[in-house]
Structure formats: structure tokens, C-alpha cells
Amino acid sequence: MKKIYLYxxxxxxxxxxxxxxxxxxxxxxxxxxxDELGMDFIEGGWPGSNPKDLEFFKKIKSVKFKxxxxxxxxxxxxxxxxxxxxxxxxxxxxxxxxxxxxxxKSWDLHVRDVLKVALKDNLEMITDTIRFLRxxxxxxxxxAEHFFDGYKHNPEYALDTIIAAQEAGAQSIILCDTxxxxxxxxxxxxxxxxxxxxxxxxxxxxxxxAGMAVANTIAAVEAGCTHVQGTINGYGxxxxxxxxxxxxxxLKLKLNINCISDRNLRELTEVSRYVSExxxxxxxxxxxxxxxxxxxxxxGVHINAMLKNTFTYxxxxxxxxxxxxxxxxxxxxxxxxxxxxxxxxxxxxxxDDRHTKNLHKLIQRLEYEGYQFEAAQASxxxxxxxxxxxxxxxxxxxxxxxxxxxxxxxxxxSEATVKIKVNNISEHTAAEGDGPVNALDSALRKALxxxxxxxxxxxxxxxxxxxxxxxxxxAAKVRVFIESQDEKSSWWTVGVSENIIEASWxxxxxxxxxxxxxxxxxxxx
Length: 525
Hints:
A hairpin with a 4-residue loop joins strand 15 and strand 16. The protein folds into three domains: 274 residues, Aldolase class I (TIM Barrel); 74 residues, no CATH class; 129 residues, Alpha-isopropylmalate synthase LeuA, regulatory domain (Double Stranded RNA Binding Domain), CATH 3.30.160. Helix content is 40%, strand content 20%. By secondary structure, it is an alpha/beta fold. The longest helix is centred in the C-terminal third of the chain and has 25 residues.
């Protein structure tokens, strides 16, 4: 098969995601990470549209890339203006890039209703724009916007637009499903009808409005497309673009197309999470290949089978894409997950062991009360060690108090007081915080700081509350999840109570005890 060119548009199309706003530095950081992954082309933005993208293209010149070429994005020239005098095309030339992607209208509906020009004038706009950029020794990719919708309504004209781009000198013709509503069978059929007319590389750019972006992209490659566009994590306007994480994994592992190296493929999960972090977006647990739950097993039957043969419930080995297998503890997983976790902790148990039976009953009871350990593995590890009498407390609580005060100027002040004992030494501290939980966290760690200095390197990074029975109103139980992290890792803990402060306290204590336990085990090793 011909080489497949990977083209990433996270910095432009992905930046149109609701909730994402990249700084210039963000875009540079992501571009460097994409280069490390082995991306062929990175679309940096539209230098003629905003000052931020202009600055990006100025600064990116000083960055050395090993694998990737930076691409600028723009549109065909304006109507009633020559390409040589169009300010947007002038900005593309001045960006000094060697590759430019130009989008042009291929759906007659858009030509008439949006551009408001004659169909032949649109063809002239495409031709004039590409010829001008080629005269500047710039390689041009032509994005045929709305191509599939245009082809469905007026196949002759849609074909005329990409032939015009081809004759004008475009290196690649990219067929776009801009509205994201085309079915996979239609993608295959239309590409098959177009292919005989195109001598250049054919590409694919699809959106996910019908939930088919990845499938349509893979089908397009199988139909002959060699230029593949998408975004990391499927970011993009409305429902997003084709998720390049899934596309790359499918190309490499399902179609045996060597689009990136095996080594780089093992960085896929890390790149996905890095981009979500820089984008300030939650990384989706159920994201194929790279999600935290992509190789997580909860049902007891599944876990039992997995321990015998991992291919029973996994279509690939998770380490091939840099992910990890997880067995989740819950009332559904039976004793198998307990045995697996115990083995991880170096405890030799079997199904008939009384400790196993007692642990199973304990987990069932706690989950009935509202606990959920599959999302709080740190609390689950502590639970096992405590149940097996293999755990010694790091401190004892004498008591705590939390006060929330609203003052006349409408400011809210939260203050927490904590009394603890460490090795029979009492400590009494107080701290203020942005809220009662933050204050309680600060007071507890302040009380323990002199005894356990490493706590200064951890902090609370996320806090989630779930009401377990809304019908009970203010008397309902709540489940609190807390994520904590240090310079090495992050972990989740859980607490449940009718009192949100008590539930938060449980999760906070587990979080700190887990940190101290790991430090102690590391010192032993």
C-alpha cells in the first residue's frame, strides 16, 4: 500500500471545540508533542484570521521538527479580487511556510447561498488561488469543503471543483464531510466514483456528527485515500473531527499500515492525555485505545476469563498503545478482582480463603451503602490492607471542626480546626481555605507536615460529589471522590456519608494515608 500521510488539525479545527482556547505557547507545546509522535503534517492555524495565529507562525519558525511539516490554513480568494491582491493569501505567503491548505466550496448550495457567486466564478476562485500560491513555490493541499454533500446533490459540479484544483497544481485533494452526516457506505461509493478522475493524492477529512468519523476515515483509506486528516482526541466544532488516536491505532494495528513506528505507537496514550491536559479538557475514560477504561474489566466472568487468556475480552494488548489493563473492584466482579489485587499487593489468597470471602462480603456491603471502588483504587488498596491486618495507621483523629462565615461584604470564609495524634504526640492546627473541604485539607496536612514532610509535595487536584438518593433531599447520602497528586502520580479516594464534610474527610484521610503508605513502601525497597 502507498504511504499514508497523517495530517493533524488539532491546533486549528480542534481549537474550535467549545471550551478550548489555546495560547500561542499551548499551540507550540502541542506541535512539539505531535512531532515526537511522528505526525507528517501539523496545521498550525489561519495566519490571516487573527493575531494569535500570526504570532504562532512567527515563533514556530525557530522550532526544529524531526518529523513534521507545519501547514498554514486559508481560503480561496475573495470574489471580485485577484489572488495576488487578496490580503488573506498575502498573509499565507508572509508566514513563510512551505505547505498551505486551502479550502474551497464544492457544494453548489454554498456557492449560491454563501459566496453568492456564479458556479463558474467559484471555479475561477479555486484555480486563481492555487496557481498564485504555487507561483510562490508553496505546496498546496485543497480541502474540498462539503464535498460529499455537494456530490450527493450535484455530482458533476462537485467533481468540477476538485478537477479545477488538480489542474491548478494542488498536490493533494482532500474530500471533506464537513457536516459529518455521510454514511460509511456512501463514503466508499463516492470515493470509488471520484478516483478515476484524480491523478493527485486523495485525502479524507470528516466530522463526527453522525458518530462515524473514525469509521469513515478508515473506510476512505481502504478505498484509496492516502492523506488522512483529524485531531487528537477527536476535538473539533460541534461533535468533533475524526479522532486521530483511534485512526492511527486502527491503521497500524488493524490494517498493518506503518504510519508511525511501533515505538511511537506506545506513546499514543501519553500524547492523548498530554493534549487533553494542555487543552484543559477532561480526558474521556471510555475513549477507544487511550481511555482509562479502554482496558478496564469489571464483571467477574470477564475478569476470570482474562486471567486465563487476555484475548478473551481485549482486541489488542494495551501496552501496544501505551495503555494499561485494569481489573475493577465492585459487587459485580466477584472474588476474582480481589484475588488479582491481592496478588498485586503480594498477598497470597485463594477463592476459598476466609479473608477472600470476608473481603467480598465487605465490598458488597460497602457498595450497597454507596461506596464505589472501581473509580477509587487507592481506597480499595487501603481497604484490602486494613482487612488483612497489614496496615498501621499513621495518625489518630481526636476531632475536627469546620466553620463557614459569611461577612457583610459578601465574602465567604471557611476555617477548619484539626486535632490529631502521631505516636502519642498531639497536634492542634487551624487553616483557612476557599471552601470547607479545602480548609479541612489544608488544616490536616498542616498538622501532619512536621511528622511527614513529603506531604508538602502533594495536593488535592479534583473533587466530585454525587447525591446518591435525590428523593431524600438534604438528608440524602453523598459520595465524594477526591483526586490527589504529587510529582510522580495521581490517585483517587472515596468517602460516603449523609454529611458532605464527613464524606470529604473520609476521602481526604484515605488520600493522605495512601501517599504515606507509598512513601513507606518506597523507602523499604
